Amino acid sequence: MNLLLLSNSTQHGRGYLEHAMDTVTGFLPAGGRLVFVPYALADHDGYTAQVRGALAGAGIDVRGVHEGGDPLARLGEADAVFVGGGNSFRLLSALYRTGLREALTKAVGAGLPYMGASAGTNMAAPSLRTTNDMPIVEPPSFEALGLVPFQINPHYLDPDPASTHKGETREERLTEFLEENDVPVLGLREGSWLRVDGARATLGGARDARLFRRGTAPRELAVGADLSELLGAVPAFDSRA
């Protein structure tokens, strides 16, 4: 696997992908054809144009997977694929509908570089179960691409002890997940990302991450941490503690 999984594509006060541009352009093949999957948002053309504009200076040829009428053919032409953020339920539903869920799993498993951001990073996990999104549509299954054998929670937010909000914190929600599923969850804060290169996984970006496992307290992970052990995880869903 050759993966770059971003927590977010837009950082406060900066342009689209700007906070990670050096990493993104170093990951994508120079002069290559990048196929962009815009299905997490409703405006596919506008979303693709945003990505095309952001990467134009790097000489990367961006093509929307929806352009030309045959998403599978567009994917077959790609030197790399980028699955963008938005609503994870809408995205996964579209991947099933177009046949891209199976096609992406096969292509990335065969070596096609995969970049995801937010919802696109959620897709790399085995299941949709740790997304933050509202289920605005119902996909055929929660089963995602399974490019890594553990769960990821992009946009992870730490509990605010001064908050008067009485709803669940992100930590409480992930703890509830682990009560029903025995699967590690990597909480990626804004500005962080996971780089997977074969059997090696490394935490990158500007902020530390947080790892959740059943039966243990959450653990802080410093930028640069080797997370390769997570690639050997064996997920057990619907396995109540």
Shape: globular
Strand tally: 11
> Strands across the major sheet, in which order?
3-2-4-5-1-8-9
DSSP strand content: 15-25%
End-to-end separation: 31 Å
Radius of gyration: 17 Å
User: Could you say which structural class the secondary elements and strand pairing correspond to?
Assistant: alpha/beta
User: Poorly predicted ranges (pLDDT <50, ≥5 residues)?
Assistant: none
Characterize the main sheet. Answer: 7 strands, mixed
Question: What's this entry about, in short?
Answer:
The protein is α/β, with parallel strands linked by helices. The protein contains 7 helices and 11 strands.
Main attributes of the structure:
241 residues, alpha/beta, four-stranded mixed beta sheet
Topology:
Elements: E1 2-6, H1 21-27, E2 33-37, H2 44-55, E3 61-64, H3 71-76, E4 80-83, H4 88-98, H5 100-109, E5 114-117, H6 119-123, E6 151-154, H7 170-180, E7 185-188, E8 192-197, E9 200-205, E10 209-212, E11 219-221
Parallel strand pairs: 1-5, 2-3, 2-4, 4-5, 6-7
Antiparallel strand pairs: 1-8, 7-10, 8-9, 10-11
